[in-house]
Hints:
This protein is of the alpha/beta class and 292 residues long. The protein is built from nine helices and ten strands.
Amino acid sequence: xxxxxxxxxxxxxxxxxxxxxxxxxxxxxxxxxxxxxxxxxxxxxxxxxxxxxxxxxxxxxxxxxxxxxxxxxxxxxxxxxxxxxxxxxxxxxxxxxxxxxxxxxxxxxxxxxxxxxxxxxxxxxxxxxxxxxxxxxxxxxxxxxxxxxxxxxxxxxxxxxxxxxxxxxxxxxxxxxxxxxxxxxxxxxxxxxxxxxxxxxxxxxxxxxxxxxxxxxxxxxxxxxxxxxxxxxxxxxxxxxxxxxxxxxxxxxxxxxxxxxxxxxxxxxxxxxxxxxxxxxxxxxxxxxxxx
Length: 292
Ligand SMILES: NC(=O)c1ccc[n+]([C@@H]2O[C@H](COP(=O)([O-])OP(=O)(O)OC[C@H]3O[C@@H](n4cnc5c(N)ncnc54)[C@H](O)[C@@H]3O)[C@@H](O)[C@H]2O)c1
């Protein structure tokens, strides 16, 4: 179910005709839509949300309504329908102002944005529904996921698609701050693997819990820009001369991010297979074909 608030229907083109694919247009803020979506469902993977820290700072009311109010609607509809497993997207943003590296599930700081509050709220509700109602919830704290079809346009686009689009247009990728902030960029196939493990393999030890989902290594934004330039230069030699530009730092962002993925390895059997470079090698051809 999706209301396509922040995504394109064409992202689903490759699934049309696949027998098991049964899309439904609906809004998680509407309880009736959530109830309709639960018909005949054993397992819920709840990913719908308004992404982006800056979006939530600009419009906290909408982020709250979708990410927290909508989450509760989906959770309650799943409970009422007797759904057997509820896997949901949390976020590395819940680590907030904690400076500990690598980030471990049990040590979080104070939230730095409304978005982080909503994701932390999801975790708290899920844990409570596990405790009160025995619901089999599993939270996945995704770290900076990237890959094909991620939108490079608009004020809330993620760094990797935004930088690739800029390079392909020979305009300077814009870095907020000094570029020395670091991220554990995670190729989407790794995130999908974690979802599959949570749906298929996880047992009692995982229910009511949250898990870091990341590759488990970090680069600075300056290193990321270099890696992108190097990857793109063989496709478009003019990219060699494109330099990054610095804009003022943005509020709400975590300075450094690196996941300890031991818990997901031990409990879910998660083992990410695609590192940053391999992920960029897979994603870039799609951007060249669609935005080059
Ligand atoms: N991409 C990342 O780096 C990242 C990192 C941490 C957490 N997450 C979380 O993972 C999940 C998936 O992220 P993504 O990057 O695929 O984001 P996305 O924006 O591509 O997907 C979210 C989807 O939710 C839909 N949606 C928004 N409001 C809705 C509503 N009211 N009703 C129904 N659908 C609605 C959007 O149209 C979109 O298709 C989100 O919950 C996000 O917060 C993502």
